[in-house]
Amino acid sequence: MTILTETKDGPLVLSPDQIEELGKALDELRAKTVADLGDRDREYLYSIIKAQRGFEVAGRGLMYLGFLPPVWLAAVAALSVSKILDNMEIGHNVMHGQYDWMREPGLNSRVFEWDTVCPADQWKHSHNYLHHTYTNIHNKDRDIGYSILRMDESQSWNVLRLGQPLYAFALMMLFEWGVMGHDLEVENVLSGKRKWSDVKRLLRGQLRKAGKQALKDYLVFPALTGPLFFSTLAGNVTANLVRNVWAYSIIFCGHFPTGVQTFTEEETADETRGEWYIRQMLGSANISGSRLFHIMSGNLSHQIEHHLFPDIPAARYPEIAPEVRALCEKYGLPYNTGPLGKQIGSVWWKICKLALPPSLVKSESSPGVIVMRQRKASEVGV
Amino acid sequence: MVDLINLVQTLTSPHPLDRYLELVRPTLTAREMRAEIVHVDRSVPGSVTLTLRPTRQWKGHAAGQYVQIGVVINGVRHARCYSPVGPAGRGRHLQLTVKAHPDGLVSQYLYRNAEPGMVVDLEPAAGVFRLPDPRPERVLLISGGSGITPVLSMLRTLADEDYPGDVVFLHYAKSPEVVPHRAELDAIAERHKNFRIELRHPWRADTTRVDPTAPWVDVAPAKTSGYFDYDELERVAPWFADAHTYVCGPQSLMAAVRKIFEAEQLDDRLHTEEFTLSLAPVDADEAFGTVRFSASGVAADNNGAPLLEQAESAGLTPEYGCRMGICFSCTAVRRTGCTRNLRTGETDSDPDQPIQLCINAPVGDVDIDI
Question: What domain of life does the UniProt record list for this protein's source (chain B) (predicted)?
Fold first, then answer.
């Protein structure tokens, strides 16, 4: 199987040998990193956990002085940072099994729960399994548009798509609830592809988890501040909103900016390990930024590295990135990265553009990369 | 107390309260038991004796039982079992003697690095190798090498209780210097005339009486084999048929004792504890042994395939996802046995560890909790 990619500079052909070579180079990079895991990674994770717990305690505590507007703002900021760290650099990464090697019972992917309404086990199914195995494959990766949005030209258009920017905005604001509902696969239930009994079990789990989350944020903590009940409630709602907007923005930058590739089931049948790696690289996009920015994004700003090695501690991605980038350059593959403004701008542009009927929008097959997979290069006329 | 913890955990949800408290101080935990090392004694070559102060959840141990402790080595938490050497009870302190095994990761680490202030995980005492209540009329304790720890706890417990019956403690060691807790043995031998303590050093052929000043019988026999046999048993405890016998030590010693007791049809009075080192086999490619899926009560011959496939061909339907080691859907706990990671080639045999079934194959007998 050969992968042919067309770049701005003309077509690019990777021979099966080259693909295998690239796969081996990435396997080696993986092995090298895994062999080096140790105290440093443990200490890093614990330092993030300490910071997160610190911000949380500070945020909850400052709410008691929430009648002073600057303090209220500081409380919301601290709580927002806490929730962002909890969900991204800790929760997302721990639940990927990135720290399972530490054999720390509380930080194992099997048991970890995060500070959001979506139960960990459901998220692990839709994200770790479906999204990471079938990354950007149409009809397999449910993260393409999250069954709400049209994020790729090959998804059909209908008149309801016109409201897409609004749906996207609503999804952004209610992101944690959207994530929670993701594993229900509502459209599959409606079309009869999914049994009600499956859904009932999921709903019970969601009710339990969301109930606990809502209880502490919207009832118990506000009540504990007595007369400041509504001030604290408003603060907690705001912190959850801030986290939602941030998480949505970072996550949408991972696979939707211009230049990111999608694939068909046909193209990706019987993939080799090397081809799997290439799909992960072409289907993901990075965000450039400072160290603090990477931490606050849970290193999902290194989405390409994350998709190559989802179970390697995310804090290692910045170290791995130059080597991945060098490999991309060596084989002529694109390495999609840019500052947050550029990436998120291109995501919203895509959301708006794909809301319109295809007849009104110029197809954007270039300058992006077209991936074709054929048995022989000659079959595609090269 | 527990209700209060649950109440507070409503506020710390989804994280358990201990995940906050441990950041303040590792021993400040509501639920999880830990222990702080308060004293370290390296006076005996090749072993280290740790005095631990457990957190308030500690319920004590019965003489002969073991505890599991967990330490972090290069970022990884490792757990091992050791028998407390102190007398039974709910003391404020707990004493463990750890022999530094040449290939022992944890024992070597503790031997080199343990220091006061270090905090380790601690699991409640467990194990059926223990003195019964009420005590038997006569007690014979036999140990070899590091197997001394559970029987020493029994000996010290009996001494503390001023046990009136006959007690013989027969211990085999490479040399007198490597016998830990000689001061305790000394004191017990001095104080309790009904306790007989005999140390054997069969590897030393030079002298018959090693330490003439010792209150116990400390010999390296020149004539006999020096190892355990029927004559030796008759000599030190002629009443052994009426006693309860507790043995802990290397395989050869255990086998020698078991053989005699079986021949005498006294198996029901013999209690043994094996300290087996589970080492990964050298050649991991040969498929042998049995794979047990203990939660479903299914067992099958190991055919060398990944555990997920073996579970499925045994008729089970474990949860799975990517089948390529990325999604962690199929992670399950390996109770016992050794598995090989098919991606890295590494073998691992620590008990009770979560592993990914799709990329791990069993090496010999394995027990998976699905």
Answer: Bacteria
